[in-house]
From TrEMBL:
Residues 3-57 form the HTH lacI-type domain. PANTHER family: HTH-TYPE TRANSCRIPTIONAL REGULATOR GALS, LACI-RELATED TRANSCRIPTIONAL REPRESSOR. This is LacI family DNA-binding transcriptional regulator. It comes from the Bacteria. GO terms for molecular function: DNA-binding transcription factor activity; transcription cis-regulatory region binding. The lineage of its organism: Bacteria, Bacillati, Bacillota, Bacilli, Bacillales.
Length: 339
């Protein structure tokens, strides 16, 4: 015979309505009563209907997670499984599930976010990216949806909860390191130019050059747009300049892997001919030959803190926006050497 709320109420010596309120985590129920009811539930082996509980509480107990592109492409990058692992740990502690965006195009993702928030499928949203003129961020902000961002927002950072690295400082540290090894001709192979992380790292790159009184060479900067569909040609063009770079900073370890492959095709050796540094410290990076110098950006912590921030907003609509800076660390390996 199935155990019912009435059975729990009888054992706990409370009313069935009180049991329902405990299941819904009603704030007016005392901790003592909650403990008594939960002990009765455990003793009887009663498992509440959480869908019913969520209807009572008017919450979905789900967090929407929005990626910069489709999940098929996103999961090709080790960044996303790791950031989701951090989000999942925080969500699990608060008994929340995750609702992943599955759309492919920017417009489809926007429509999906509108549907998931207007349809009350989620209580809040985490954006796993930050880019210029993002209408999804604008929509969330304008409609009072609880949300957080992994990355510095392009607008109103004081009004938005976000977590990020100090990308300007860490990019500057990377270039300073290469300069200390004697390099002056340093290339920057970046991500999409409309993403804030790309512009911040480019700023750090330029700051380091300026402080070392090294002229900025626009031809040494290769954006994702310039490489799209013709990555090998872009790297070939970079290395066949009259004065090719002796060091390359890449936006991501995955980009570094590609660049190293193209350099091998050109009979250019790493690090004998060119030093190279990546970002994100993917597991494979330490096993390359040579092992890749990279920046550990604490991906798990980015996800964990992003989830903590959105849960703060979900649980307290009046909570002040918070900005969290997660440490990033340069890991020196054998892909760099002195000139």
């Amino acid at each position: 015979m199935a155990i019912t709320i009435k059975d729990v109420a009888r054992l706990a010596e409370v009313s069935p309505a009180t049991v329902s309120r405990v299941i819904a985590d009603h704030p007016k129920i005392t901790p003592k009563t909650k403990r008594k009811v939960r002990l009765a539930m455990d003793e009887l082996g009663y498992y509440p209907n959480f869908q019913a509980r969520n209807l009572v509480a008017q919450k979905s107990k789900a967090i929407g997670v929005v990626m910069e592109n489709s999940t098929t492409l996103a999961f090709q990058n080790p960044f996303f499984p790791e950031v989701l692992r951090g989000i999942s740990v925080s969500a699990h502690q608060s008994q929340y599930g995750l609702y992943l965006s599955t759309s492919a195009t920017e417009q489809e993702i926007y429509e999906e976010v509108v549907a998931m928030t207007q349809g009350k499928r989620v209580d809040g949203v985490i954006l796993l990216y930050s880019k210029m003129d993002d209408k999804i961020l604008d929509y969330l902000l304008a409609n009072g949806v609880p949300f957080s961002v992994v990355g510095r927002p392009y607008t109103r950072p004081d009004a938005i909860s976000y977590v990020d690295n100090d990308n300007i400082a860490i990019a500057k540290e990377v270039v300073d390191h290469l300069i200390s090894l004697g390099h002056r001709d340093i290339s920057f192979v970046g991500g999409a130019s409309d993403f804030i992380v790309s512009s911040d790292r480019l700023s750090g790159y330029r700051q380091a050059l300026a402080e070392a009184e090294i002229p900025f060479t626009p031809e040494y900067v290769v954006t994702q747009e310039a490489m799209e569909g013709q990555e090998q040609q872009a790297i070939c063009k970079l290395m066949k300049q009259k004065k090719p770079p002796t060091a390359i900073v890449t936006h991501d370890d995955l980009v570094a892997y590609e660049v190293i492959s193209y350099l091998e095709d050109l009979n250019i050796a790493v690090p004998a001919d060119v030093s190279i540094v990546g970002f994100n410290n993917h597991t494979l990076s330490s096993h390359l030959k040579p092992p890749l110098s990279t920046v550990d950006i604490s991906i798990f912590d980015l996800g964990l803190e992003a989830a903590n921030l959105v849960l703060e907003k979900i649980n307290d609509g009046n909570a002040a926006p918070r900005n969290i800076v997660v440490p990033a660390t340069l890991i020196e390996r054998a892909s760099c050497q002195s000139l």
